[in-house]
Design a protein that fits this description.
Blueprint (H helix, E strand, L loop, with lengths): L2 E6 L5 E2 L15 E5 L1 H7 L37 E3 L1 H7 L3 E6 L9 H14 L4 E5 L3 H13 L2 E7 L4 H9 L3 E5 L3 H15 L2 E2 L8 H5 L1 H9 L7 E5 L4 H15 L9 E7 L4 H7 L26 H11 L2 E5 L1 H15 L5 H4 L1 H10 L8 E6 L7 H9 L1
Parallel strand pairs: 5-13, 6-7, 6-9, 7-8, 10-11, 10-13, 11-12
Antiparallel strand pairs: 1-2, 1-3, 4-5
Helix pairs in contact: 3-4, 4-5, 8-9
Length: 392
């Protein structure tokens, strides 16, 4: 469509569009797709979006796929933004909203990134895709590869929730269970991908999953009447959603759709795996690997994120912060979401509730501010954790 080039998010080296890049050839950091935004803004208007398809592909001109017949979609995106009045009242907030990503195909926000990544892989001529996954990304990759007639090769920690493993297998993916963490799974993909002919779609190790995730930011602005909230509370493992939203805000400002005001971005991690929290608190830009890494929220069990500096940059530029919560508290938060708002959130989404409570207690969020809390997936895939928690 309107892609001009790919750009390294760290060293700014340009890479030619339409080529099968993974990361920057100079520094090995994530690549961002860049667009001719002034050209897009000439004929794509905010007002014209209302008549478009209710999926992330309503932002077609701001996504990298050139040919429409290469789009692999299951109707992902355009998820509800729910005014959480009862939970808000319990917390002392009048403008608390929940962006509920469990409504997506495959029941998590991972559907957004995999739709764009699989679509671009198809456009680039790949037929075999591979990725490490702690759960939901694997399910999404399996589903979109099935939809697109492609092979999915997924490497998962052996203790990944069984529901996620079954989801991948039923969709026809080749699943390998690894004794270790998602970083060990990623190393196995990297070791085998050239010999096997796989295109690696690991988090931020290819340029297109973040393009799907950035539509979270576009949707948020559109659903709030082209304003942005005061605060965004986001559960962060690999961080693609937060990084994507930050990219979306920059793009929208350049097109004249929003002003320069940004939400304070809040990263929430599990206490048992909190590399971004530790680096942020230490004043560092890059995070050391977190060892040992352990949490029931498998999507937060990312001991080392390739996009760490992008997450931390967004936190600091926005005046936000990073908070770690215990497994006990994040499960309790998920139960509170279900009992007050009827949303059966994944533990990752549940983590945002105790984090927000602590922010309010510390005076870092004011009662009259507009806050958006993100639930990134469905609790239905974590039944064992909630079952054991209910018995305690």
């Amino acid at each position: 469509m309107h892609v001009t080039h790919l750009e390294c998010s760290l060293c700014r080296r340009e890479h030619e569009a339409g080529k099968p890049w993974n990361v920057c050839i100079d520094c090995g950091k994530p690549l961002f797709v860049r667009y001719d935004l002034l050209r897009v803004a000439k004929f794509m208007t905010k007002q014209g979006l209302s008549s478009r398809v209710p999926s992330l592909w309503r932002y077609r001109e701001l996504l990298p796929v050139r040919r429409e017949d290469n789009i692999v979609s299951l109707g992902e995106g355009w998820t509800p933004l729910i005014h959480a009045r009862r939970l808000g009242a319990a917390l002392g907030l009048t403008e608390l909203h929940i962006k509920d990503e469990s409504i997506n195909p495959t029941q998590s926000f991972k559907a957004r990134g995999m739709s764009t990544a699989v679509s671009m892989a198809k456009e680039l001529g790949f037929t075999k895709l591979a990725a490490p996954s702690a759960g939901n990304a694997g399910g999404a990759l399996a589903a979109y590869c099935a939809r697109g007639g492609m092979e999915a090769h997924i490497f998962m920690p052996r203790d990944t929730p069984r529901a996620n493993v079954i989801e991948c297998e039923v969709a026809g993916a080749h699943v390998t269970l690894v004794d270790g963490l998602i970083t060990d799974c990623g190393a196995e993909v990297a070791r085998r991908k050239e010999a096997e002919g796989w295109f690696d779609v690991s988090t931020l190790k290819e340029p297109y999953r973040v393009e799907g995730k950035k539509t979270l930011g576009y949707e948020l602005a559109e659903q709030l009447g082209w304003t942005l909230p005061d605060v965004i509370v986001y559960p962060t493992g690999g961080g693609t959603g937060l990084v994507g939203m930050w990219k979306a805000f920059e793009e929208m400002e350049k097109m004249g759709w929003i002003g320069d005001k940004r939400p304070r971005m809040i990263t929430v991690q599990a206490a048992g795996c909190a590399p971004i929290v530790r680096a942020h608190d230490a004043g560092e830009r890059f995070a050391e690997e977190f060892k040992p890494a352990a949490t029931v929220a498998s999507g937060l069990r990312v001991p080392k994120a390739i996009g760490d500096f992008l997450i931390i940059d967004a936190l600091r530029e926005s005046g936000g912060t990073a908070i770690a919560v215990s497994d006990e508290d994040l499960l309790a938060g998920a139960r509170e979401l279900a009992r007050t708002e009827g949303i059966f959130a994944a533990p990752e989404g549940g983590a945002c509730v105790p984090a927000l409570r602590r922010l309010l207690e510390a005076g870092l969020v004011k009662p009259d501010e507009r806050v958006v809390l993100f639930n990134t997936g469905s609790g239905i895939k974590y039944l064992d954790e909630f079952d054991s928690g209910a018995r305690q």
